[in-house]
Amino acid sequence: MHYFLCLLLLMVGLFGALTQKNLIKIILSVAIIEHAVNTFLIMVGYRHDGTAPIVDRAQVAGSSFASGAVDPLPQAMVLTAIVISLGVLALMVAVAMRLYHTYGTYDITEIRKLRG
Amino acid sequence: MKETSTIVKTISRCVVGFIFLYGLYIVCYGHLTPGGGFTGGVILASAFVLEMLAWGKEEALKSLPFRLAKPFDSAGALAFLVLGLLGLLLGGDFFVNVIQKAYPGKPFSLFNAGIIPLCNIAIAIKVCASLFLVILVLSVLRVAAGGGTEDDLTTQEEE
Amino acid sequence: MKLLPLMIAIPLSVAFILPLLPKKRPRMADCLAVLATLALLALAAMLIGQSGVYALGGWRPPVGIVLVLDGLSWLVLITVALVSFLVTVFSARYMEQYTARGRYYALFMLMVAGMNGAVLTGDMFNLYVFIEVAAVASYALVAFGCHEEELEASFKYAVLGSIASSFILLGIALMYCLFGTVNMAHLGQKVSASGLNRAAIFSLVLFIAGFGLKAALVPFHAWLPDAHPSAPAPISAMLSGVLIKAIGVYALIRVLFNVFGVTAQVATALMVLGTISMVVAILMALIQWDLKRLLAYSSISQIGYVMLGFGVGGAVLAAGGSPVIAALGFLGALFHLVNHAVFKSLLFLSSGALEYATGTRQLKEMGGLGKEMPVTAGASLVASLAIGGVPPLNGFFSKLIIILACVSSGHYGFALAAVLVSIFTLAVYMKVQKYAFLGKPAEGRKSVHEVPAAMRIPMTLLAVLCLGMSLMLLPGPKKRVLDPAVQVLMDRDAYIQSVMGVASALGAGQETDMKIAEN
């Protein structure tokens, strides 16, 4: 069920990226897509009633730990994916600002030097 | 542009130090508790960004000058790579934890994880410097001849 | 083998040293970049014929990240190294028009590091990370000139590229959800054991869409004709020559053939996508008057050939047909991939030389340049004939092999399309020759000079390669270079075995650290 909510969020983002005319809104849509995927990845590793995947002094890496903790690997992957999307978004925002300086608008229907 | 109010200035001056300290803690204990280079680096950068928002970019640039941030940006990444190459030279494989192999530490003590805390510190320097630069460049884009420094961010997290 | 990580470490470290160099001495940046790519080329050449698995940090495969060197990854690696070396030599003079060359080379090196990493890695998530590193660097490089068109193309490219990456990441997440691992060989093992259910097929579709977007196959191609021409010419050569292959085609076939194992439906999808790309893009190329835009459309068309070759091979393999025919399809596709890297980067470099000399990219504003720029004209002629498939040149043989594979496996329609597109390709490039180099100079065109030697030498070398690459099909070089790569695609179990075999060898001694990660 939760997985489908993620897919729904992905669709919302995709819809936005395809239909919006404003550069900033497109960037936000891309951010929504990335967040949907990240949420999905987190939920893959989730375990109901699981503990945080941190070994503390009380229980040194016993067998009960591995069977009781949430999977940490997707969390590590999501962290990396967030760093990447941060880089991409920063770049896109910089490009959008540059476009605004040259065209004086964020509307893509008015930014049409290229035909594609 | 309107000046930020005295309340904002005073409070931010009070908390900036604590935020910075907290960032350092997250970085240094990254191998024991949740956190690490990236998270800590972001917190460190947020201290400078808060200063920039409250006091203006001139003040922020006094505590982290542009000509210092740029070398830090590269140096953090290079230090991370050097740690990896150290493993290749001394341990036989890229990114072998040479220090840990030579001096295996006790679990849960501060100095037990070999190169991992060092990697965290290198990443934190890189992330802090580049995130600060990104926000600086984006907020003063008219002045800077930007276009390209901000994307270096993505590389340091790849191992 | 021991030096394998240097293929990633060298460009990455150079990328971070370059911004530290003094800005007033741009020659230092040039020298450092050329030296680095030369070192990469030497390193890649040293690795010929070797294969093996490199466990980073000594962590055993299903858990740690591995780098896998085999025939296929070596072939792409040496192509990337060769093209990037020649392109940096070309850039040294060409980029004098731009400021901030340190940054240009830094981004360039980041892109090379991303491509080398994506080619070598044996881990799905690591593949995603390296693809993103290469892609982000390329978004920035497309916008490097900071003119309107460049910014617009870069924005379009970045939006579509990051949607593609999200698809790829979603596919990886689904695979992790189903099989509990991100190591490619381990995934392959588990897929063989349990077969593909619907969710796995969904992730397969996501991979085809994601990598297809990166490789600019036709329904997903809209960004390429904007992005590739807008970049500075050496970067266009890199993007069209190797980037779409390393992070698009290579990654797609590695995932399809070595992880999932090819099925009849997937093979048909590849063939259809390939043929549509081939046909649509070449028709679009015919009507272009902007030289670089024309070249960009032609790139899509040529990628279509490569995909068709892989699809035919895969179809034969999936149907349990003759392995000789399947190998023929793969051979043609791989050979065409390498050939295209060589002649398309040469064409883009020569278009850069034309732009450098005349200041325009419009074919109608050129004309008669053959007399004034003999070296550029010669190099461009060789590349045009090669891409058009004129007999003794490399492009002829690779297309011939693909068409032969189509015919001998009974796909006559696809073979016919390939032949027709080849004729159209020749027509497109004859148009380039006619309007740029032959005939009378266009009205109002100033007289121009040949470009400097630092730009002529890489073009000449690439032209010589175009002339000589047919020799790769002789039994000796073929056995050393192309056959190992074909073998990787033919034999999925061998790939899985080569990686997972290392697991047991390295297994001992790390058990305590591992328990947490193995859920």
> How would you describe the oligomerization state of the chains in this entry?
heterotrimer
Give the termini separation of chain A: 39 Å
Structural class of chain A: mainly alpha
The portion of residues forming beta strands of chain C comes to: under 5%
Bulk shape of chain A = elongated
- Any idea what the CATH architecture of chain A is? Orthogonal Bundle
Query: Taking strands numbered 1, 2, ... along the chain, how are they ordered across the largest sheet of chain C?
Result: 1-2
SSE order of chain A, one letter for each helix or strand: HHHH
Rounded to an integer in angstroms, the radius of gyration calculated over CA atoms of chain C is 22 Å
Class computed from helices, strands and strand pairing of chain C: mainly alpha
Structural description of this entry:
The complex is a heterotrimer of chains A (116), B (159) and C (519). Chain A is mostly helical. Chain A has a single domain, classed as Helix Hairpins, CATH 1.10.287. Chain A is built from 4 helices and no strands. The longest helix of chain A is centred in the last third of the chain and has 32 residues, at 72-103. The two termini of chain A are 39 Å apart. In chain A, 35% of the residues are buried. In chain B, 66% of the residues lie in helices and 0% in strands. Chain B has helices spanning 6-28, 37-55, 57-63, 66-91, 98-102, 115-139.
